[in-house]
């Protein structure tokens, strides 16, 4: 069952503990203490949210632009993006999401999937091809890693 959006003072947020760890947006030491929480940008689309690491060493700007363009093409929409960060929430993590124009409300269940430096949130019946976005990001991450190793 997907996590539900919750109302916060700043709008809406989604619990993303496992996906954020998987995407490398949070890092913890052996004791489970947080050593890194990423600053992210969250882009809103009709029935979809993309959350990308703002660190251009982790997600280069060209990769971010490609993913946003792909999501905009898939959904035939683009709405407000917000700068935020992965936040502590109870024993896990959450992220603020943009609400303007997305159609999401508190209580909506929103599945969240991860790739390196990326979270994709979309209802199961959404028109966005979540798998394509995730595969594109995984390929980008491999290409970036290969480029870094080729430079050394």
The helix content is 25-40%
Strand order of the largest sheet: 7-5-6-11-10
Amount of beta strand: 25-35%
Low-confidence stretches: none
Radius of gyration, in Å, reads 15 Å
How would a crystallographer describe the biggest sheet?
A: 5 strands, antiparallel
Sum up the overall morphology in one term: globular
Distance between the termini: 44 Å
- State the secondary-structure class: alpha+beta
Please count the helical segments: 3
Number of strands: 11
| Topology order in helix (H) and strand (E) letters | EEHEEEEHEEEEEH
Arithmetic mean of pLDDT: 90
Task: Write up what this structure looks like.
The chain has a 5-stranded antiparallel beta sheet, sandwiched between helices. The protein is α+β, with helices and mostly antiparallel strands. Helix 2 runs antiparallel to helix 3 (130-151). It has helices at residues 17-23, 61-75, 130-151; strands at 6-8, 11-15, 26-28, 34-37, 39-45, 48-53, 81-85, 87-89, 92-97, 112-115, 118-121. It starts with 5 loop residues before the first strand and ends with a helix.
